[in-house]
Write a structure and sequence with these properties.
Blueprint: H1 8-19, H2 23-36, E1 41-47, E2 53-58, H3 65-71, H4 97-104, E3 106-112, E4 119-125, E5 128-129, E6 133-135, E7 140-146, H5 153-156, H6 162-179, E8 184-189, E9 195-197, H7 204-215, H8 217-221, E10 223-230, E11 233-240, E12 252-256, E13 259-261, H9 264-274, E14 286-291, E15 297-298, E16 309-310, H10 313-330, H11 339-352, H12 357-361, E17 391-392, H13 402-406, E18 411-416, E19 420-425, E20 428-433, H14 434-452, E21 457-467, H15 470-478, H16 480-485, E22 489-492, E23 497-504, H17 512-525, H18 532-547, H19 557-569, E24 583-587, H20 588-594
Parallel strand pairs: 1-8, 12-14
Antiparallel strand pairs: 1-2, 2-7, 3-4, 3-7, 4-5, 4-6, 8-9, 10-11, 11-14, 12-13, 15-16, 17-18, 18-19, 19-20, 20-24, 21-23, 22-23
Helix pairs in contact: 1-4, 2-6, 9-10, 14-18, 14-19, 15-17, 17-18
C-alpha cells in the first residue's frame, strides 16, 4: 500500500476529532479562550443543542487583523510566549481549537482590539479560510459556529439528542463558572433553562456565593470549607456533609490550577476520605481546587485537557484525603439539615389523614372533645399517663436542665417506641435514632483504642465453638491475626468451625456465635477491599453494631442525656457506620409552619 501525505483539510478534521467531540467541547474551548483574553462577561447562545449554532460573546481584549488571521491556523497560539510546555499557566494552549472547529463547521469571528480604529472579521467554511475583512464589532469578540459536524456526518450521527447536548454544555459552564467567580456568565438557548451567574467579590464569601449560584443554596447549607497546604500544594473548596450524599458523582467538581478536570486520582482521594461515612453506592458532593506550581502537573495528558498527571501523585492524594478527613472530623456531630424532608412528610401525612367531606357532613359537634361537658356522663377522659413515653422525662416530672437545653442536641425529654429520643433545644426539637447514634460512638471508641494501644480483650471463661460453613470458617481463620488486633482471638477448630477464646472488652457480654457469623459475612463482602486497614475498619463497624444500644431498649433520662453529650463530643456522630443520619432537627419555625402559625 502506497504511503501518501494527507491534505490539510483532512488533517484538520482528524485534529478536530481529538479536540471537539461534541458541542460542549467547542463551547469549552471558546469560553476558555475568552477567559484567557481577560473577559469579565461571557454570553453563550445555543440553537438545537449547539448543532445549528453556538455563539460566544466576550468583552476581552480582542485581536487585530494580523492576530486574527493567525488564530485560525493550526499550531498558532498566544498562550506559549516562550514555548515552554512544562509551565502552562493558561486554560487554552494547544492552538488547535479554532482551526479544528473551522474544519468541521462554518466559523465566523468578529473582534476588535482595545484602541483599534475598527473591528475585523474572518470566516472559515469547512476548512476554507476567507480573507480578513473590516467589521463594526465594538469590543472583545463574537464567535459563531454554525452547522457543527455538517461536513463530517459520521461524527454528527453519534451526537445525542439536542436536549442532552444542551445539558452537557450547561454542565461545562457550571464547572467553568465555579473556577472564575469574578466573571459573569449567561447561557441561553432551546432545550435548557437560562443560566445566569453574576460576578462575585474575591475571597471565601464571594466563592461561597458563586458555589450557591451554581449548585444551590442547599449545598452551601450542608457543606463545610476545606483548606490545607503542604510542600507547595494547596487545596481549598467546600465539601458536603457525609449525610448529604448523592446517587452519582455528578456533584463532584475538581479543578487543578483553575482548570476543570475529571481526574481519577482526585476522585479516588475523595472516595477514600468519605469511605468511612457514606452508604454503599452513594457519593459525596464537593467542590475542590488544587493549586500548585504549573511545573508540578502535566495538563497535556488528554487532547481535551480533562485529565492531568501530577509529578508527586502521592503527595496530592495524601493531602486531599487528610484535609477532607480532618474537615469532616471538625464538623463533630453535625448532620445534613432534614427539616425540609420532615416537613414534607408531615404535610403529606396530614393531607392523607384529612377528614373526608362525607365524614365532615355527618360530624356531630357533641362528639367533639372541645364540646362542653366532654369527659362527663360516662365519656372517656384523655389521660396522659396512658400514652406516657418509654422513659418518662416530661417537664412535670423532670424539668429540663438549662445547661442541657443550651447544648447543640438539647435536653432529652422522652424516648418513644423504645427507639427514638426526643430532645428539646433552645429553639427547636431534635429526634435521635439511639441505635444508630450509639453504634457510631462505639465504632469511634474502638478505632481510637486500636490506634493508641490496641483493642482491650477479655477472655471467655469457656472458649466457644462457632459452627460455620467451610468457606466462612476458612476466611475467619485466615484473618485471625487481623482479628486479634481488634480484640477477637479465634483459631481453627476442624472443618467448618472456629474456636473463640477472647472478645473485645468494650463489647461486654455479647452473642459470640452471632458476632462471628456477622464478621464472616463482612469478610466475604469485603474480599475485594484493598488494604488491611480498610478491612479492619469494616470489621470494627460490625463489632460496634453488636455492642450498640438496640432499638427497643428503654433508657433513663440520664442515659439519654449522656448519649447526647457524647455525640456532641465525637467527630462523625452525625451519621452511623452505614452513612444514615443519626438525628434530625425541627426548628420552632418549622413546627409553627405545620400548625399554620407562619
Amino acid at each position: 500500500m502506497t504511503v501518501r501525505l494527507l491534505d490539510r483539510v483532512t488533517i484538520d478534521r482528524i485534529a478536530a476529532g481529538e479536540v471537539v467531540e461534541r458541542p460542549a467541547s467547542a463551547v469549552k474551548e471558546l469560553v476558555e479562550n475568552a477567559l484567557d483574553a481577560g473577559a469579565r462577561r461571557i454570553e453563550i447562545a445555543l440553537e438545537d443543542g449547539g448543532r445549528r449554532l453556538i455563539r460566544v460573546i466576550d468583552d476581552g481584549e480582542g485581536m487585530n487583523a494580523a492576530d486574527l488571521e493567525l488564530a485560525v491556523e493550526r499550531h498558532a497560539t498566544s498562550k506559549l510566549p516562550d514555548g515552554d510546555l512544562s509551565a502552562i499557566a493558561t486554560l487554552g494552549f494547544r492552538g488547535e481549537a479554532l482551526p479544528s472547529i473551522g474544519s468541521v463547521a462554518h466559523l465566523s469571528i468578529d473582534t476588535r482590539a482595545a484602541g483599534a480604529e475598527h473591528g475585523v472579521s474572518i470566516r472559515v467554511d469547512a476548512g476554507d479560510k476567507r480573507p480578513v475583512q473590516a467589521s463594526s464589532w465594538p469590543r472583545g469578540a463574537r464567535i459563531e459556529v454554525r452547522d457543527l459536524f455538517a461536513v463530517t456526518p459520521a461524527r454528527l450521527k453519534f451526537l445525542k439528542s439536542p436536549r442532552a447536548e444542551a445539558q452537557a454544555v450547561a454542565d461545562i459552564l457550571r464547572r467553568i463558572a465555579l473556577a472564575h467567580c469574578d466573571v459573569s456568565f449567561v447561557l441561553t438557548g432551546d432545550h435548557l433553562t437560562t443560566l445566569s451567574y453574576r460576578a462575585t467579590e474575591p475571597g471565601r464569601e464571594g466563592f461561597a456565593e458563586r458555589v450557591a449560584q451554581v449548585l444551590g443554596r442547599e449545598f452551601i447549607d450542608n457543606a463545610f470549607p476545606v483548606e490545607a497546604e503542604r510542600e507547595g500544594v494547596r487545596i481549598v473548596g467546600f465539601a458536603g456533609l457525609p449525610t448529604w450524599h448523592r446517587a452519582t458523582a455528578t456533584m463532584q467538581y475538581a479543578f487543578v490550577n483553575g482548570r476543570p478536570v475529571r481526574d481519577r486520582l482526585l476522585a479516588g482521594a475523595i472516595r477514600g476520605a468519605y469511605v468511612d461515612f457514606l452508604p454503599a453506592g452513594r457519593h459525596a458532593a464537593i467542590v475542590l481546587f488544587v493549586e500548585c506550581d504549573p511545573r508540578e502537573v502535566d495538563v497535556n495528558v488528554h487532547p481535551a485537557k480533562a485529565e492531568v498527571r501530577f509529578r508527586d501523585a502521592g503527595l496530592v492524594r495524601g493531602l486531599v484525603v487528610g484535609a477532607l478527613k480532618n474537615a469532616i472530623a471538625a464538623q463533630g456531630h453535625r448532620a445534613a439539615t432534614g427539616a425540609e424532608a420532615a416537613l414534607a412528610s408531615f404535610q403529606m401525612r396530614g393531607a392523607a389523614h384529612a377528614w373526608s367531606g362525607a365524614r365532615a357532613a355527618n360530624w356531630d359537634w357533641r362528639d367533639s372533645p372541645a364540646a362542653p361537658g366532654f369527659g362527663e356522663a360516662g365519656q372517656a377522659t384523655f389521660d396522659i399517663g396512658e400514652v406516657a413515653p418509654s422513659a418518662d422525662a416530661r417537664a412535670t416530672v423532670a424539668p429540663a436542665s438549662e445547661t442541657d437545653t443550651q447544648a447543640p442536641l438539647g435536653a432529652a425529654r422522652a424516648q418513644v417506641h423504645e427507639t427514638y429520643i426526643v430532645a428539646q433545644t433552645r429553639d427547636g426539637v431534635v429526634f435521635i435514632d439511639q441505635h444508630a447514634a450509639h453504634e457510631r460512638l462505639v465504632y469511634e471508641k474502638l478505632k481510637r483504642q486500636r490506634d493508641e494501644h490496641g483493642v482491650a480483650r477479655q477472655g471467655l471463661l469457656a472458649p466457644e465453638v462457632v459452627d460455620l460453613d467451610e468457606a466462612s470458617a476458612a476466611r475467619v481463620a485466615a484473618s485471625a491475626p487481623e482479628l486479634e488486633s481488634l480484640g477477637l482471638v479465634v483459631e481453627p477448630f476442624g472443618p467448618g468451625a472456629v474456636l473463640v477464646r477472647e472478645t473485645p472488652a468494650l463489647l461486654g457480654r455479647t452473642d459470640v456465635r452471632r458476632l462471628v457469623a456477622d464478621i464472616a459475612d463482612t469478610l466475604a463482602e469485603d474480599a475485594s477491599l484493598q488494604g488491611i486497614e480498610r478491612r479492619l475498619d469494616h470489621v470494627l463497624a460490625t463489632l460496634a453494631c453488636h455492642h450498640s444500644v438496640r432499638a427497643g431498649r428503654r433508657l433513663t433520662p440520664d442515659e439519654m442525656n449522656a448519649l447526647l453529650r457524647e455525640m456532641e463530643a465525637t467527630p462523625g456522630s452525625g451519621q452511623c457506620n452505614h452513612g444514615r443520619p443519626t438525628w434530625v432537627e425541627l426548628k420552632l419555625a418549622d413546627i409553627e409552619k405545620l400548625f399554620g402559625r407562619r
